[in-house]
């Protein structure tokens, strides 16, 4: 009798646990109220400061995202990884060279980080790529640990292995498409992108053309000049200059599809680059939080006259709910909840 009683109690207990976890997932843990304090703050780290074991599991998680079906179940995009790229392609004209550029990409990278954790079980730190460490280094950019064939994202493209499509209307600088990456976890034959280059839909390899021309612009002194901007408008414009700005140098330094305004997120390095750009913005905000934590400017549309405000609504089709610019300004609040190791 005692045993039976105990068994019934156990059964009841496990049912309760079961129900609680089913009920808890969609409401409380997945979508906490925007603006509420964070339950946990994730500390993002530079790629080479992350344990090799975690670097490998990060790469495995990216590959997992590439295998998961797209949230719309469709052909284009064909995976969860491509959901993020497709959203970037669709919204390119609306989210670049405008006020929401930094806020929108901050949230995009955060949604991607959450997908790696929640959908692919990644438990380590989310990596950023601190280009200054390569800019200040004696070795060529192509020798950066970020391009390591085993503990990195593979190297540059090999000339002659990729032919740029005839329609280059959304491929502004085809000479940067040196060739297919032939080393590392995303090498040709192992990873095939379906969206891009540009707005085209083609099956293709990961295209890179690592370009040493940009290494001097990655030096910490050069980057500091940009972060030293005293108002957001100056900062926003100076970082986005393709040839000198810190947004452009990461894209141009990697070359290939990373230089494509639309389809750049075909390269998993896109997210490490943009997280570092976000880190530069956060550092800029932190130098004078009273004035900068909630400072925004820039047109709502490319070349437009209306200025972006805190109430501006940003959307993330396929990826998550709408958020305002205000919602992403303070990293210590939901839906952000992360910080940088340095
Ligand atoms: C590297 O960038 C420079 C400057 O834009 C350009 O002249 C050169 O063709 C590029 N090389 C490659 C391989 O992309
Ligand atoms: C999200 O924002 C977009 C663009 O402003 C808008 O078209 C859409 O209706 C919004 N969706 C919701 C659910 O509010
Ligand atoms: Cu972008």
Automatic annotation (TrEMBL):
Keywords assigned by UniProt, alphabetized: Copper, Metal-binding, Signal
Tyrosinase copper-binding domain mapped to chain residues: 267-278
Gene3D superfamilies associated with the record: Di-copper center containing domain from catechol oxidase
Residues of the signal peptide: 1-24
Top-level taxon of origin: Eukaryota
Record flagged with keyword Signal: yes
InterPro entries reported in the protein's UniProt record: Di-copper_centre_dom_sf, Tyrosinase/Hemocyanin, Tyrosinase_Cu-bd
Protein name: Tyrosinase
Originating species: Coprinellus micaceus (Glistening ink-cap mushroom)
UniProt lineage: Eukaryota, Fungi, Dikarya, Basidiomycota, Agaricomycotina
């Amino acid at each position: 009798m005692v045993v039976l009683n105990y068994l019934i109690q156990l059964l009841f207990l496990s049912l309760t646990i079961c129900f609680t976890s089913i009920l808890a997932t969609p409401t409380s843990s997945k979508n906490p109220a925007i603006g509420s304090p964070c339950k946990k703050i994730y500390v993002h780290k530079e790629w080479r400061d992350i344990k090799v074991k975690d670097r490998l599991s990060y790469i495995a998680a990216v590959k997992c995202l590439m295998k998961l079906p797209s949230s719309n179940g469709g052909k284009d995009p064909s995976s969860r990884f491509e959901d993020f790229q497709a959203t970037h392609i669709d919204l390119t004209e609306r989210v670049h060279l405008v006020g929401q550029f930094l806020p929108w990409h901050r949230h995009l990278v955060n949604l991607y980080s959450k997908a790696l954790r929640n959908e692919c079980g990644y438990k380590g730190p989310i990596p950023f790529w601190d280009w200054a460490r390569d800019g200040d280094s004696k070795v060529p950019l192509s020798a950066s640990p970020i391009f390591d064939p085993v503990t990195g994202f593979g190297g540059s493209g090999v000339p002659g292995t990729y032919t740029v499509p005839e329609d280059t209307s959304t491929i502004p600088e085809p000479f940067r498409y040196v060739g297919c990456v032939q080393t590392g976890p995303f090498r040709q034959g192992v990873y095939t992108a379906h969206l891009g280059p540009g707005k085209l839909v083609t099956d293709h390899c990961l295209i890179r053309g690592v370009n040493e021309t940009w290494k001097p612009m990655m030096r910490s002194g050069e980057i500091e000049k940009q972060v030293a901007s005293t108002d957001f408008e100056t900062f926003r414009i100076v970082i986005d200059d393709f040839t000198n700005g810190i947004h452009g140098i990461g894209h141009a330094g990697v070359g290939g599809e990373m230089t494509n305004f639309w389809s750049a997120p075909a390269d998993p390095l896109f997210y490490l680059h943009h997280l570092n750009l976000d880190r530069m913005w956060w550092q800029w905000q932190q130098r004078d939080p009273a004035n900068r934590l909630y400072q925004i400017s820039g047109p709502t549309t490319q070349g437009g006259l209306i200025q972006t405000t805190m109430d501006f609504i940003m959307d993330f089709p396929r990826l998550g709910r709408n958020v305002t610019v205000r919602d992403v300004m303070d990293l210590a609040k939901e839906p952000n909840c992360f910080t940088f190791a340095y």
